[in-house]
Design a protein that fits this description.
Strand order of the largest sheet: 14-17-16-15-13-7-12-11-8-18
Largest sheet: 10 strands, mixed
Bound molecules: 6-O-phosphono-beta-D-glucopyranose
Number of helices: 13
Shape: globular
Helix content: 25-40%
Strand content: 15-25%
Number of strands: 18
């Protein structure tokens, strides 16, 4: 792949956690693989009064990157993001670097700041003629915004409108790091570059779909953010619905970003709107409760520092959703996500229907289990197909066996992190794996009735689940009551020495 055009990447919020943990390490990976252009610089900005040198020292100690050839491409300029006049320093610095590197005015602005600042920053960039390709700074201009993109439908619409006042839609890169995961992208490749799956990928052969995004960690030190947000906004509205989009979309005619994003939008538009009755019946929320585990007491959500007293914020969601179109009519999708579960594992289970007529028995005299395709998104990324096989010997006894692919089998292949992939795409001007404004609004439109119902009845379906369990019983009952199946526990093939705990 050719390197992207020469450009400068400006990071707002440069001394923050995201820059240290994700952005700088990902850009460094791109640097090591020679994927950055020759004319390239990172310009950090923020309120802190770093010089270029002290900012590099800060990154050295925070990100443990000591490669001078990389660090010397990093610069810093202090900006008070709330003060429009303060951006003239940023502009001067950008122009100085542009001249020094002898490159066009191609700029990416990465907003790693609280979302409340996005409109202010966009407006200030526009005010200083940094938002458009113009005579003063000829070259492309792009802005990357982090999630959360809005707090509800109205705020997402407002934010879109405010950004569109200063940037065009094709300049706005709304990041959802799940779309940057190799295995999420591979859903499309599995479906559309093989002829064996797609003929079965519909209501005639699929019984239901399960999507699990389990996390072992709790809210860490993020109570200020999390207590306001909860799992529905944090994981479902964006990451999990995007996975649904990839699983359920129709084959796009081309692999262009417009074609792909049009198809996922159609999925979101086909989500069956949730009535209050559906929400009461089919949306479960949970909150982790403290317990002694591994010899120590693990505090529950309400005991975490910074969580408001008696908070009803959910750390777990399980729900059923339906897609009303020809392909998916009557095929329920079940999603669940939670913190402080037994392990970190994200996976999709495509549960196929049983054979119409059973003529063989399995070894325990039951029919073999219907086929499952398991897409392991993380960890141990891979694809697993479960099917029945004859046990050698007399008679026709059938046993379930696995056909299993692990990405780790690509021994010499580097599996890029989500941020590496997405940052590189933004440098190339490829929007495919970024959310489009219309899709963002449609997903909020779907989620909004849940937020409203929960606001009116905060205790509705709020269950407390012990740390290190797979969540509330009610979530297990939800799936079972519609399908007769249990959630697949995502721990097969994991050789990390942890116990595999059943539901
Ligand atoms: C983030 C959420 O978007 O995704 C976090 O804000 C969550 O709460 C994280 O922990 C999960 O991402 P991953 O890549 O670890 O599955």
């Amino acid at each position: 792949m050719n390197p992207p055009n020469d450009h400068i990447l400006t990071i707002f919020g440069a001394s923050g956690d995201l820059t240290r943990r994700k952005l700088i390490p990902s850009i460094y990976e791109l640097f090591k693989q020679n994927l950055l252009p020759e004319g390239f610089a990172i310009l950090g900005t923020g309120r802190k009064a770093f010089s270029d040198e002290s900012f590099r020292d800060h990154l050295k100690s925070e990100s443990k990157i000591t490669d001078e050839a990389f660090l010397k491409q990093i610069f810093y300029v202090p900006v008070n993001t709330k003060d429009i006049e303060s951006y003239s320093g940023l502009k001067d610095r950008l122009l100085e670097l542009t001249k020094k590197l002898d490159i066009p005015g191609n700029y990416i602005f990465y907003l790693a700041t609280p979302p409340g600042l996005y409109p202010t920053i966009a407006k200030a960039l526009h005010h200083h003629s940094l938002s458009r390709d113009n005579g003063e700074h000829p070259g492309w201009k792009r802005v990357i915004v982090e999630k959360p993109f809005g707090y509800d439908l109205q705020s997402a619409k407002d934010l879109n409108r405010e950004l569109l006042d200063y940037f065009a839609e094709d300049q706005i890169y709304r990041i959802d790091h799940y779309l940057g995961k190799e295995t999420v992208q591979n859903i499309m490749v599995t479906r559309f570059s093989n002829s064996i799956f797609e003929p079965l990928w519909n209501r005639n052969y699929i019984d239901h779909v399960q999507i699990t995004a389990a996390e072992e960690i709790g809210i860490e030190l993020r109570s200020g953010y999390y207590d306001e947000i909860g799992a529905l906004r944090d994981m479902v509205q964006n990451h999990l619905l995007h996975i649904v989009g990839m699983l359920a979309m129709e084959p796009p005619a081309l692999s262009t970003s417009a074609a792909i994003r049009n198809e996922t939008l159609k999925v979101f538009q086909s989500l069956r709107p949730l009535t209050e009755n559906d929400i009461r019946k089919n949306v479960i929320k949970g909150q982790y409760a403290g317990r002694k585990f591994n010899g120590a007491y693990n505090p529950g959500y309400l005991e975490e520092e910074g969580v408001s007293k008696g908070s009803g914020t959910e750390t777990y969601v399980a729900m059923k959703l339906n897609i009303d179109n020809w392909r998916w009519k009557d095929v329920p999708f079940f999603i669940r996500t939670g913190k402080r579960l037994p392990r970190r594992a994200t996976e999709v289970v495509i549960q196929f229907r049983p054979t119409p007529h059973h003529i063989f028995c399995s070894n325990d005299n039951q029919q073999s289990t219907p086929n499952q395709l398991v897409i392991r998104i993380q960890p141990d990324e891979g694809l697993l197909l479960k099917f029945g096989l004859k046990i050698p010997g007399a008679g026709f006894k059938v046993q379930d066996v696995n056909m299993d692919f692990h990405y780790s089998d690509f021994a010499d292949t580097h599996l890029p992190s989500a941020y590496e992939r997405l940052l590189l795409d933004s440098m190339h001007g490829d929007l495919t794996l970024y959310s489009r404004g219309d899709a963002t609004e449609v997903t909020w439109e779907y989620i909004n009735p849940i937020l409203e119902t929960w606001k009116a009845s905060p205790e509705l379906n709020l269950y407390h689940y012990p740390i290190h369990s797979w969540g509330p019983e009610a979530a297990a009952d939800l799936l079972k009551s519609y399908t007769g199946y249990n959630w697949k526990i995502p721990c097969e093939n994991l050789s990390d020495g942890k116990e595999c705990i059943e539901q």
